[in-house]
Structure formats: C-alpha cells, structure tokens
Amino acid sequence: MQHSVESGGFEDLKVVQVSATEWRVSGRSFEEQSPAAFWGLVCQCGEAFSVIRPGRFPEWRTYCSFDRALASFADYSD
C-alpha cells in the first residue's frame, strides 16, 4: 500500500520508504548526517501503524492510520 506524505500537512517531515511496510522519518531542517535528523520509524502491521522512536527510553506506539502515525512526530518539530 502506497502512502502519500506530500499532501498531509507534514511539510517538516522527511519520510522515506525503506521497505514495503516501513518508513524512515526525519526532520527536514536537520543535516542528513546529524543524529538529530532521525526521528523514528513507521511500520505497518496489518491495518495498524506502529511508531518506533529512538532515545534513552525508546517509545513504541500504535495508530489506526498512516497519517495519525506521522502526526505523532509533530512535537519533534517544536
């Protein structure tokens, strides 16, 4: 299933599909090589979309849609 990120109001996100069911999410305002650029992964599991965020205490949350999963990264852009 192909998901569009250009039209969802996610201008601050850079989303790259890395497999049929996984997307790498980073911030557009960061240098590609910067560790701060990598914000997490979105993984599709059936009808659900899991978000995995790295960090000292990694987070794993599940959402009902691709857009909601991407919206969970909104607080990273502040």
Biggest beta-sheet profile = 5 strands, antiparallel
Give, in spatial order, the strands making up the sheet with the most strands: 1-2-3-4-5
Stretches with pLDDT under 50, minimum 5 residues: none
Using only CA atoms, what is the Rg?
A: 12 Å
What proportion strand?
Answer: 35-45%
Average per-residue pLDDT, rounded, comes to 79
Oligomer description: single chain
Task: Give the termini separation.
Answer: 30 Å
The SS-based structural class is mainly beta
What is the molecular shape? globular
Share of helix among residues? under 10%
Count of alpha/pi helices: 1
Order of helices and strands: EEEEEH
Write the layout of secondary structure elements.
Elements: E1 13-19, E2 22-27, E3 38-45, E4 48-53, E5 59-63, H1 66-71
Describe the structure.
By secondary structure, the protein is mainly beta. 8% of the residues lie in helices and 41% in strands. A five-stranded antiparallel sheet has the order 1-2-3-4-5. The termini are far apart. The relative contact order is 0.20. The model has no long low-confidence stretch (mean pLDDT 79).
